[in-house]
Amino acid sequence: MERRARRMLSIGLGLAAVAGALALLLAWWLPTDAELGARVKAQAEARLGVEVSLGSVRWQLLPWPALVIENAATVQPEPIRFDRLVAQPQIRALLHRQLRFDHVLVEGGVMPQLALRGLRLQPAKAAHQEGVPIAQLRFHNLSWVTRYGKALEFDGNVFFDAGWRPREAQVVRPGVQPLTQLKLQREGDADSWQVQLLLGGGTAHGQVALTPAAEGLHLAGELAPRNVEVDSAMAAFKRNSVVRGKASGRSLLSADGHTIAELARSLHTRTTFSMQPATVLRLDIDKAIRTAGQDRAGQTPLQSLSGQMDTQNTPEGMVVRYSGLQARGETFSASGHATIANRQVEGELRVDLVGGLVGVPLQFAGPLGAPKVTVPPTAMAGAAAGAVVGTAVLPGIGTAIGASVGAAVGKLFGGDAAKKPASAPAR
Fold first, then answer.
1. H/E element holding 83?
2. Cβ atoms within 10 Å, residue 232
């Protein structure tokens, strides 16, 4: 045992001596911290197209050589910031005075969505020229800030192949339950990846692929959402849903662009979904009808809810379109469509009451939290002529079903906290 201990100690001292000698060699060979800071700043500004400020840039030689950058930020109204970045360089490249990195760790940072529009990113070199610039990127407590100021924290780990192609990737929302996690796995050397998405206690697995196109690159993919609990999925991204229930369906993805940023800005998704059963939260439609809209507190169970949701990223934000919506409850059914853009909603529902009014059109438009709901006068007159319920109930129907269900449909996958009810429908 003593002989073994002495041997291990000897090996440890030998490795320490080698590391110390390597550190001294690199200290003599590497540029100074000031030179390094100027070089990093120049390269970052050339690549991003905006001015960059660096709190400190220094070499860390022990226990292993690393470049450490602290308090880095772009100079913008809403800057991109990194608290600490640690990059381990490739020793062979360093000996030729080249900066290429094996591992990069980002600890703490903020990436505002609005800041990305101000960047003038230079396109990456071709894959066969660039090689593998970074073997592994890890990030911890990195916050993505939406255009409306909502911060979403992420942890992640990405292994790269040549040309910045991810070989493996994992991104997770830390501290969120049920687990919200995305995994990518490249299929050999092809530009296609298997996708595993855990969300809302369900899954949305599938595949995405990149192919050459007139606009640089074309991304296409398909996911299969299964048993995704809508309200917990929304809560994972700090948003409120007006519907509870498990959704399943099919999602198609497509995008075009020369860079990852351009692909993200042009992303289009089309999802067909169904929920059986579902619950409309914060609204009791039956009670609202019985009280002519005076009392609507509670919930409404639905036998089914289905439709199609299209999303399109634009420079002004995401546009969401719902079409073919079908909802069925115990005492009513509704069908319709809606569009959401710039926190405004516009759409129409047609509501049938069991034993009462049939095909009453309810039009809604205005702020997402409180759209104005109207019933066209011609529709009211026609419905009154043959309805058992009669025109006296129409204001209650418009307020309860139109305002609340209309807002619910418009906010199905992107609701805000409940706000004051919409105004009563026009007579």
1. strand 81-89
2. 19
Contact 251, 223 (CB under 8 A): yes
Q: For residue 123, with 0-12 CB atoms within 10 Å meaning exposed, 13-18 middle and 19 or more buried, which class applies?
A: exposed
Are 389 and 356 contacting, i.e. CB atoms less than 8 angstroms apart? yes
Q: Are 277 and 304 in contact (CB under 8 A)?
A: yes
- Distance (Å, whole) CA 226 – CA 34: 54
Environment class of 145 (CB within 10 Å of its CB; exposed 0-12, middle 13-18, buried 19+): middle
User: Could you tell me where the beta strands, DSSP code E, fall in 116-267?
Assistant: 134-145, 151-160, 166-172, 181-186, 192-199, 202-213, 216-226, 228-229, 243-244, 246-257
Asked, for residue 243, whether it belongs to a domain, the answer is: no
Dist. CA 156–CA 142, nearest whole Å: 9
Check whether 247 has a pLDDT greater than 90.
yes
- Give the chain's count of helices (H) and strands (E): 11, 22
How far is CA 225 from each of CA 230, 247, 401, rounded to the nearest angstrom? 11, 7, 29
At 354-375, the pLDDT tens digits run: 766 667 777 878 887 677 777 7
Of these ranges, 45-59, 174-188, 395-409, the one predicted with the greatest mean pLDDT is: 174-188
Burial class of 18 by CB neighbour count within 10 A (0 to 12, 13 to 18, 19+) = exposed
Domain count across the chain: 1
Residue 422 lies in a domain: no
In contact, 99 and 65? CB cutoff 8 Å: no
Whether 336 is in a domain gets the answer no
Of residues 107 and 261, more confidence is placed in 107
Note the Cα 78 to chain centre separation in Å: 19
Beta pairing, strands 246-257 & 300-314: unpaired
pLDDT above 70 for 10: no
CB atoms within 10 A of CB 339: 16
Higher pLDDT: 355 or 313? It is 313
CA–CA distance, 358 with 373 (Å, rounded to integer): 18
For the stretch 391-402, pLDDT in tens is 333 343 434 343
Which residue has 């991204």 as its token pair? 237
Residue 212 lies in a domain: no
Residue recorded with tokens 């034993």: 355
Domain that holds residue 99: 30-175
What residues are paired with 273 via a beta bridge?
A: 249, 307
The token pair at 82 is 């990194």
